[in-house]
Fold:
Amino acid sequence: MQTGWRIGSLFGIPLLIDYSWFIILALATREYASSYRSWGPTLSWSAGFAIALLLFASVLLHELGHSLAAISQGIKVNSITLFLFGGVASIDSESKTPGQAFQVAIAGPLVSFSLFVILGLGSQVLPQASLLAIIAERVALINLVLGLFNLIPGLPLDGGQVLKAAIWKITGSRFAGVRWAAKTGQVLGWLAVAFGLSICLLARLYGGLWIALIGLFAIRNASAYSRFTSLQEALLKTKAADAMSREFRVVDADLSLREFADRYLLEVNPFPFYIASSNGRDLGLVSIDDIRCTERSQWQIQTLHNILQPLAKTPTVSEKASLAEVINTMEARQLPRIIVISSIGAVVGTIDRGDAIKVLAKYLKPKISEADIKRSKEENSYPQGLHLSAIAKTAQED
Structure:
């Protein structure tokens, strides 16, 4: 979901600004302006504001580098957002190979290093000691720092993405790559927190609080990467047979509608549907709604053969299908539940959204309570904030 104010687009990619961006823009303007106080209030604040804007223009081009590399691989880019800690490109899915993942990861730093060279050369061409030359030189150094900082080998930084691609290449497992890069990001994040707080408390340098804040941001995002990937892996490894329940009953397809109604519709808790079978072979689904829509005068004449929905025309999944495939099929066809069939074509179970949550509960963080699992089952829905359908989609695409 896109958040923030849309300010335009580049190459068809929406550009957004988060409210926190205005905070860092003001702080950056004040910080840079303080370096040029000797020029007087007007020029110093103008220079500070210009450098702050060019900083974020550099961040935008950095993220655009990632985005264009992704687009060249056929991957959709949803948006680029500028916020408190810089910028982020919302890329729809993963690259298909470690080599392609490396290309997307390295594209951003390469843009920053290119800007460093171009602006550095520009500062030498412009008249020395002029305001434009000084600004160009300052922004060139900012891009050098931006490129080098992003190459630190830990998620969510670009260096972490490069490390992920390298481990993916070595091990053959994208999940292993993410786990190692996320762990590295968490360790580096905690080191940044410790370092920032130390220089703040011991040296009275309050800029250390900013370093600690960046460290916390890195820890949170590295942890999110790890959780997201663990859930993707669980969706691929968990099979339909592990998640299904047997919320159906097999009935004789030769029963008349009257016989069926007398035997089953009067049950205290009727099943949502029934499987009509004949000679040991499952033929199709019997829906209570279909019976109720049939004229009562026909109940004694017609049998379940006349109203059943043939299995061949019913959306089903194999018991060996991954849970990601199950969820994607349900979402694509807008199904409340789906039938699970065995290798010989027999109905062996059903899966709804509550079943998926129940089997995935041990992988979810924060933990899902038994009450939430029960509610998901009763309401056939996912817990609020858990975008399981989107995670399943990316898992199967990857």
In short: The chain is about 55% helix and 15% strand. Residues 327 and 389 are 6 Å apart (CA to CA). The first strand starts at residue 5 and ends at 10.
